[in-house]
Amino acid sequence: MRCLLVLSVVLAVILGCHAYSASWGRKNVNDYLLSRQVEVRNPIKNNYWNVNIDYPRAGTVGYYNISAVFVYDNFKNSSGAAPSLWSGGPGYKFTTINLRGQVNRGINSTVEIYGR
User: Fold this and answer.
1) SS in 3 state form for 65-88?
2) Bridge partners, 84 (sequence order)
3) How many beta carbons lie within 10 A of that of residue 23, not counting itself?
4) What is the rounded distance in angstroms from the CA atom of residue 62 to the CA atom of residue 49?
5) Which of 19, 25, 62, 78 could serve as 73's disulfide partner, Cβ 3.0–4.6 Å?
6) With contact defined as beta carbons under 8 Å apart, do 88 and 41 qualify?
C-alpha cells in the first residue's frame, strides 16, 4: 500500500512539472512549415500577459490549409503561458492562438504552424 502511495506522489510530481505545450492536428511528412513565431515577454508585476498569435499575419493571405499547430513552452517548468486555440486551426486557412501567462510570470513560447 505504501508503494502505491509513493508511486502516485511521484507520478503527480512528474505530471505537474511538465511545461504548457499543446498541439492540434497531425503533421504529415509532406507538410510545409508555414509559420514559426517565438513570443517572449518579460513578467509584469501583479498582472499577466494575454497574447494572440494570428496566422496569416495582417496584410497577407493564407494559401495553404493548416494541418497541425504546435505550441511549445520554452520555460520547461510550468511557469509559461497556457495556449488555447480560439479560431481556425487544422482544416482551415487561418488560425488564432491565445497565450495566457501566469500572474507575475513572463511568456516564452514557440508557435509552429504546418500545412500543405
Assistant:
1) CEEEEEEEECCCCCCCCEEEEEEE
2) 98
3) 15
4) 27
5) 19
6) no
Q: What is the pLDDT of residues 20-32, one digit of tens each?
A: 789 999 999 999 9
Question: In 3-state terms, what secondary structure has residue 54?
Answer: strand
79-95 b/e with 16+ CB inside 10 Å = b?
bbbbbebeebbbeeeeb
Strand pairing class (32-41; 50-55) = unpaired
Q: Which residue has the cell 496584410?
A: 59
CA 66 to chain centre: 16
Report how far residue 96's alpha carbon sits from residue 29's, in angstroms, rounded to the nearest whole number.
Answer: 24
